[in-house]
């Protein structure tokens, strides 16, 4: 018997069919409560097909920002760049931490 693919795998496949570089959604909805759940580090890495180090270009895609805004985030300390030869990269943990911050900010009720 063939196992049914997980929700993250189905999202990744659908995103590829649509030609998207980043999956349609990075959150999994809990069907019983309808509340969004933050992905675990392992699920986050698998969903976005990330290794231990992420290129600056890929980090920009994940953050959904351009070159200038990304380097403003680096200057503000949101990301730490690591040199790998002539390339600059960020760690998977750094990207995941930013993802968690964005998810918690998105689930917070708006201030009046």
In short:
With 112 residues, this protein is α+β, with helices and mostly antiparallel strands.
Q: What is the radius of gyration?
A: 16 Å
SS strand fraction: 5-15%
What order do the strands of the largest sheet run in, or round the barrel if closed? 3-5-4
What would you call the structural class? alpha+beta
Look at the structure and give the mean pLDDT. Answer: 79
Order of helix and strand elements from N to C terminus: HEEHEHHEEH
Query: What's the tally of helices?
Result: 5
Biggest sheet architecture: 3 strands, antiparallel
Assign an overall shape: globular
> pLDDT below 50 for ≥5 consecutive residues: which ranges?
23-31
Number of strands: 5
Helix content: 40-55%
Please give the alpha-carbon distance between the first and last residues: 53 Å
What labels describe this entry?
single chain, 112 residues, alpha+beta, 3-stranded antiparallel sheet
């Amino acid at each position: 018997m063939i196992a049914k693919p997980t929700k993250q795998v189905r999202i990744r496949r659908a995103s590829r069919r649509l030609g998207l570089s980043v999956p349609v959604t990075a959150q999994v909805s809990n069907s019983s409560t309808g509340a969004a759940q933050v992905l675990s580090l392992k699920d986050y890495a698998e969903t976005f097909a990330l290794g231990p180090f992420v290129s600056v270009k890929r980090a920009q895609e994940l953050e959904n920002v351009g070159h200038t805004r990304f380097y403003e985030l680096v200057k503000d300390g949101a990301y730490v760049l690591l040199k790998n030869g002539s390339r600059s990269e960020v760690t998977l943990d750094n990207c995941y931490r930013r993802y968690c911050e964005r998810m918690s900010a998105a689930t917070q009720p708006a201030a009046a």
